Structures are given as structure tokens and as C-alpha cells.
Amino acid sequence: MSKTYEAMFLLDAGPSDFEAASAPVRDVLARIEAEVIAMKPWDERRLAYPVEGRKRGLYVLTYFRAAPGRLSELHHEVQLSEQILRAMVLSGDHLTDEVIAADTPAQAAQARRAIAQAERDAKAQAEAKTEAKPEAKTEAKPDAKAEAPAAEAPSADAEKPKPAAPAPPAAPKAKPEPATDDTPPGPPADSKPDRPDTA
Which of 4, 32, 161, 165 could form an S-S bond across to 70 if both were Cys, CB 3.0 to 4.6 Å? Predict the structure, then answer.
């Protein structure tokens, strides 16, 4: 009789392709004759402390069915594997299909990136269309302007425009009043000297 299990595997964060990175987990589960229900990337991140000399790791969430007696063999296979750094296996009989099918944080982040990229692409296409329309209008406008002056050309009998009237002269600037003989030259009497007298 087989039971459902939930397992989290910590792998060396080597290849960026998930299928290639998760191959060691698939191999180990195949050796114990487990049926893989779902295998998803949980996250790739920097580890809190080095694990077997590695500073980054890929977490893989796996749901599988296997005979309970084969779990000790699974733990032995994980210890022998150089690509699988750690593994934690829990009973998963209580899990529903919705929980098993739910997106992991890595899948949700990938979906958000795909949506953001699609929005950027749509925005770039819209901007390209709006830029193309003004170019078409500017190309059409010179032709229309070339036709308009020919139609509106003044005849020889037309009256010539009069020159503009000259501007009125500017008002004279006020000159400072010259000092009278009663007032001594220099600063006003109420101003203080820059430095105190030290005599």
C-alpha cells in the first residue's frame, strides 16, 4: 500500500533549467519506485549558512506516492547523492488536490514577471504606433503647406504692407544728486563704521 508524501529537497543551484536541476530528485525517486505527483521549484536563494560548501541553493517541492517501507531507502539515497544537499519528507495524506496544484513562490514570481513583460511589450507597441502616426501627419503637412502658399500668393496689384512705426524714446534715467558743500563726502552720518576704533 502506498501513501502520499510531501518532500522539500535542497539542491545545488547549478543549472538554470529546472528540468536539468531537478534530475537528481527524479533519479532518487525512481530508485525507490515512487510515483511523482508534482514537482515544482520552490525558490532559489542565498543560504543562511554554507551547506556542504555551497552558498546558494534551489528548493524543490515534490509530492509523490511510495510505500512507507521505502522511505529509509530514500533517506539513504539522498545521503549518497552529491547534488541533493538536504531533504525533508512529511506525510501528505491530508493534502487536497488544490494544495498540491497551488503555485509555489517561484512560480508566482515567474507569472508576475511574465505579466510585467507582456505589459511592457504592449506599452512599447502602443508607443511605436503613436510615434508612427505623427510622422505620417508631418509628411502630409509639408505637401499641404506647399499648396497653400501657391493658392494664397498675393497679386501684383495687392497693397504692400506698411513698415511698423518706430518705438517711442525711452524716459531718461534719474541721476544721483551731487553732494552739496554742506554735506561731507563719504558715508551718511547715521551709518556705523566697519571696524570699531581701537586707539
Answer: 32
